[in-house]
């Protein structure tokens, strides 16, 4: 008696992996904001997003939605749409992704008002411009 290997799954039996759920609100927001924010370069802080929309001439509905954006820097349009969809769906906004920033500027060296010897330094006295009377005179 010969044994045949069990047949593998047929093509009609194989189902594709479920795709992640697409939020219809996010799709609508992306379509609405893509044209309004076409001139914006990312990363952009909230104030630049709102200003770009105003320069475009967005309607009051779009403007009121953008007013609800949290104050942070957005790295891309999909990032902005995801946060805005979360805000409009009353979901907490995800923490912003790390944005590469320049290191803080070091303060410029300042001369000490007192030299290393400890003696105070004489500072020049402000004098009125020629032709002006001083208030004490």
Descriptive overview:
With 137 residues, the protein is mainly alpha-helical. Helices cover 32% and strands 3% of the residues. It has four helices and two strands, in the order H-E-H-H-E-H. It has helices spanning 24-36, 46-56, 60-67, 77-88; strands at residues 44-45, 73-74. A two-stranded antiparallel sheet has the order 1-2. Helix 1 crosses helix 4 (77-88) and helix 2 packs antiparallel against helix 3. The longest helix is centred in the N-terminal third of the chain and has 13 residues, at 24-36.
Overall average pLDDT: 74
Spatial order of strands in the largest sheet: 1-2
Span of the ends, CA to CA: 127 Å
Task: Report the total helices.
Answer: 4
User: How would a textbook summarize the main sheet?
Assistant: 2 strands, antiparallel
Number of strands: 2
Task: Lay out the secondary structure.
Layout (H helix, E strand, L loop, with lengths): L23 H13 L7 E2 H11 L3 H8 L5 E2 L2 H12 L49
Helix pairs in contact: 1-4, 2-3
Brief digest:
This protein has 137 residues and is mainly α.
Using brief descriptors, characterize the structure shown.
137 residues; two-stranded antiparallel sheet; mainly alpha
